[in-house]
Amino acid sequence: MHALGPDWMDPQYLFDTYGSAFFWLSLAIVFVECGLFFPILPGDSLLFAIGIFVAGGQLHVNIVLAMAALFVAAFAGNVVGYEIGRAVGAPLRERDGKVIRREYFEKTTEFFDRYGARALVIGRFVPIVRTYITVVAGIGRMQRRHFFTWSAVGAALWVLVVTLAGYFLGGVPLVRDNLEAAILLIVALSVLPMVIEYLRHRRSARVAAAQVAPQASEAVEDVEPR
Predict the structure, then answer these.
(1) What membrane topology term does the record carry (predicted)?
(2) Which residue, 169, 103, 99, 109, is CA-closest to 133?
(3) 3-state DSSP of the chain
(4) Most CB atoms within 10 A, among 79, 134, 150, 211?
């Protein structure tokens, strides 16, 4: 059994190291990332790489069956995360360790408050949010039927979009011969929504502060003796 090395975030390294077990390892990683508090796992890059490996004949798995298995792993991870949130989510939210961090919960809660049930679909494409959104839904006691429906839609879209992108782009020599660069681009694109959301939040905060400042100044003037 091989130990995970320093390049374990690299799908090519995992494929070269684990060979035929790569696909099963990928399913386990997707399951864990989608509900068990490990937000730094390479879910997006694995899906993209699986599409490339299947298209190139390196991974001998039917693309439809591969996506079906990845969907099950992603959805099952969501369900487990949701149930953990319902059962013991509140105490976990107060922890502030290296993996389970309070700021992750706070950012995910803000994301959930902004988008509602749609966050289960949109958040699927956002690292960290993808991991914690299901726990937040559980803590908030979101109706199970509602959660399962939106979570299934999110899992299906995530797997289809990212895996098929790799599958169809895998035939492009530039992508196939520069897998590492392509993976980095996918990771960058997946982080982009968080960056945009952060910038929008900062802009809103500045606008709110600018509106409050004149009001505070007027209040002081009213209090001062004339």
Answers:
(1) Multi-pass membrane protein
(2) 109
(3) CCCCCCCCCCHHHHHHHHHHHHHHHHHHHHHHHCCCCCCCCCHHHHHHHHHHHHHCCCCCCCHHHHHHHHHHHHHHHHHHHHHHHHHHHHHHHCCCCCCCCHHHHHHHHHHHHHHHHHHHHHHHHCCCHHHHHHHHHHHCCCCHHHHHHHHHHHHHHHHHHHHHHHHHHCCCHHHHCCHHHHHHHHHHHHHHHHHHHHHHHHHHHHHHHHHHHHHHHHHHHHHCCC
(4) 134
Q: What's the token pair of residue 93?
A: 């939210």
Q: Are 136 and 109 within 8 A, CB to CB?
A: yes
Provide the percentage of residues in the chain whose pLDDT is more than 90: 20
Residue matched to tokens 């782009």? 169
Q: What's the pTM value of the predicted model, to 2 decimals?
A: 0.72
* Cα gap 202→210, rounded to integer Å: 12
Distance CA 11, CA 48 (A): 9
| Residue extents of the structural domains in the chain | 11-192
The answer to whether 13 touches 53, Cβ cutoff 8 Å, is no
pLDDT digits (tens, 9 = 90+) for 112-155: 667 777 777 877 777 777 777 787 788 777 888 888 998 999 99
- d(CA 148, CA 146) in angstroms, rounded, equals 6
The size of the chain, in residues, is: 226
- Sequence-distant (6+) residues with CB within 8 A of 43 are 29, 30, 33, 34, 127, 130
CB 67 within 8 A of CB 163: yes
